[in-house]
Amino acid sequence: MKKTLKVIIPAAFTLSTIMGSTAFAEPQSKPNGPYVENEQNISLSSYMSNQELYDTLKKLEESSNGKMKLEIAGYSNQTLNGYSTEAAKGEPLYVVKFGDADPNKKRILITTQIHGNEQIGTEAAIDIIQKLSSGGKEVNDILDKVSIWIMPRINPEGADNQYEDSWYPTRYTHQTWDPLKIELPEGTEAPWYYNEDGSERAQNNNGRIVYGIPGYDQNRDYNPNLDFKIEDLNKAEVANFLNNPSTNNSNFGGFYVTAEARTVTSVFKEFQPDVYVDVHHRGFNTVSDEDDRSVPVQLAAVVATDSYTDPFTGKQYEVDEEALKLGKQVNALSYLTLQRGFSHFGAIQKYPDVNLPGTALGAFALNDAAIMLIEIKGQSQTLGQKQSGMLKETVKAPLYEVFKGLADGSIHTIDPQIYDDIPPSSNRISDPTTRDDEGF
Ligand SMILES: [Zn+2]
Question: Where in the numbering of this chain does the Peptidase M14 domain appear (predicted)?
């Protein structure tokens, strides 16, 4: 088939921006979008606020006839002294439980919105919770065999961020680095994933905004040593580590300075899931030069390609082979579920293998969980609510099949090679709002 390469430049994208950017260095495929172009208003109004989310969860628990248990696993600021913002405890971090941490059952943990501006995973999670809590024979058969725990929106402060009196969801958490509060020397460098000025790329492609609340990329704050506590370590050793750029970087686990990462990790430790799923958003791709369907999701079973040695304890962490196999089977089943003729649903790519021990997926993969990364296309800054129904479906449908596959054991009959053969990430559409340095 003849290649059609075409550069699409959003209408109000100025020449100076293009000249100053490397974003257009690669050939562009014709995007069948949509992403929101400059000056368009982005509507977020149908997404749930924190309060709406909490109210919805409580209603679902009430109507579930005891199937669903709703618990607060922690709060967004309830951790080390000195990491608090104005409100003492911060926002609740809920865990929705279908079944107990029963070693005789298969166990799956799902988290969403670790980045506050990645809403659709949370909306999909609510639909899943609704389906599971409403019962029926198929659901009962699943829940007889599988315990399902869901933590929707594990970054409630970023999700509810305000800027100039408007709702402005952001990637980062809200916390301030203050080394003195944890008895580190004054001036000790912050972890590399700290966003000191509280700035982020703006909605509607208009450069960057400074909302002014410092915070962290929670998805770099995890550590394969799930018991890592910065306050318990030798302070001089920690300070040296942080002050040295060759160690304060993404090759190492995070420092568990956010209450959110600690809370999620405590749930992981209690539940010990066989499978852990984290739902994100990312940029835009088409399948290939020949197939210009817009990719709705990328999937990954590999986020820790290397073993990990904790630099403070010397302890080694490795990805378990059986867990890796199950992770590939979970991803493969998800891929197969979305093949519905030549539709957008099936236009799936595989996220590139990465080695990020400070991500939740990486840290948990190094602690014997099979993992699935789901990367929905677009960010709230670029996509708004467009296609949200279709994109929710690309999360809900695969997860429901994974529940069934875990319940009847059929997941173990899937050929992991199907995962290896998923088309790799390629044909990125350079959305001018996408910053290359962020990753998932
Ligand atoms: Zn993300």
Answer: 46-440
